[in-house]
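[job 4471] stage=fold_predict status=RUNNING
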Amino acid sequence: MKLFPWRRLTIQAHDTLSSKIPSLSFINFSPSLFHSLPEQEDIFDPPFSSTLKTQKSITEKRENAASFEDSEKAHNFTINSDLPFDFRYSYSETNPAVEPIGFREPPRFSPFGPGRLDRKWTGTSAPRLQPVDLEKVAEERRRILGETLSEEETAELVEKYRHNDCSRQMNLGRGGVTHNMLEDIHGHWKRAEAVRIKCLGVPTLDMDNVCSHLEEKSGGKVIYRHINILLLYRGRNYDPKSRPTVPVMLWKPLAPIYPKLVKNVADGLTFEETKAMRNKGFNAPPLTKLSRNGVYVNVVDKVRAAFETEEVVRLDCTYVGTSDCKRIGVKLRDLVPCVPILFKDEQIILWRGTKDEEHHSSGKAS
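[job 4471] inference complete, writing structure tokens
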């Protein structure tokens, strides 16, 4: 058999080496020779050390015990809040008088965390435990606010905090006045006398409602209001060290299920009349076009003015979103008042109602 030159040289070199060291060819290179003997075992050799495994298991047990103790401490940590109102995710965008017909998550899951609040979560709110003395609460609020600001002091605060580049600003969106927003307000008040609040979206339909909830829940006072911009003043005698404790919601609770907003047949109309009203409104030109997270402060007045001459009004809410369309319809139903008869393709169709309802609403207003 022919061999390549490099192959012949390799075989010759091997034969020469074997002749010089005869015992080399009989050596068995066992893998065990590359490891230390059991009596010389190194405790830091992970594959063959039982001591290291024992130490690791002991360390894991200690860490598990420490984490269990921490979880027990967190579970036993309870906040006792004496704020004089029921805790809700949103105060300005929910109506406590309307009871839900179902829940999307079990009411036992409190958004404040297990065992972290001395109040029980009902699925929509955490009611206060003790009755509230409203006179005492009002007296404490007057004490914190102190004397009324003079025109010069008000003008100085407004000039300091009303601009867009103000560092003490908060955005109020579709959730309205939320519970966690109260903690953010007190956080700003710790270093500033007032906080600037920019309101956008559905809550701007009723700015009076937003201002009343901000003043009632935070204890401050709105000293400036321009369209959708608010300045909330903390008061002369505000002390950050003695401010009320506001427990924070750890997650946003799922919205419960409420009764159907639009009925198949509107009250005061037959099925054919309701269908004709819907077709008429859907084919009518839109009264106004609403943008997503826009400012809707003039929408209520526009709808009221349109109902003086029109029976049905359409609002174009393209790109606003289905959920926001329903929120807008609910607010307009209560503020105008009117009857929502159709939500379709992000269009809102409103009916002004019967004459009996109009006289009833005007009698309430008077």
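[job 4471] summary: The chain is about 35% helix and 10% strand.
[job 4471] exit 0
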